[in-house]
Known about the structure:
With 216 residues, the chain is mainly α.
Amino acid sequence: MSSIKTRRASSSSAPVYKESLRPQTHYDLFPSSLSSGAPPGGSFHVDPSTLRKEFLQLQAQAHPDRHQGADKAKAEAASSRINDAYKTLLNPLARARYLLSLQGVEMAEDESIAGAPSEIGSMSGGGGEMDADLLMEVMEVREGIESAGSQEEIGELKINNDARKKACENRLDELFRAGDIDGARRETIRLGYWVNVGTALDTWEKVGDGRVSEHD
Length: 216
């Protein structure tokens, strides 16, 4: 797939978008906020505020209204790619899956670690494989959500779940830096479970009845 890069133009004109012979990753599109590139050279973590600042600058440069003719179509494609890259890199789970794809490991959004029984449902991330300890922990958290009777209880569960997600992100940083792709794949799956738990917690807050539908 060809990629798009910008060539610095004079201060009175917008950047001109040209095709690059060198394939670019999402990280290449953000040279200021992600100057070290993707792991293992760079960190798995990103600074959301710094990334957003560069994103807005890039989108301003790529805005189709600043271009004419053939450059307008190229700018539209560039704007779309910048937007896709930004959304992927901003989200830790999407970022981890993207980094795995760069290593030839494609993951389905509902992929899980092995043998998860169906009663875990959508909160667990689907069928597939998961280790026993993770299975028990997910089940216990689900029970806590279903039995919660107040916003205070849900708030405490959210704090604990945010800590689990952060621990996964820190572990992913270590694994990607070490080049442990299989370990990163498994940790990405684990993160997916806690992201789904977070969605269930958000659903409880919206519904307000203390119960999470089996089909949410």
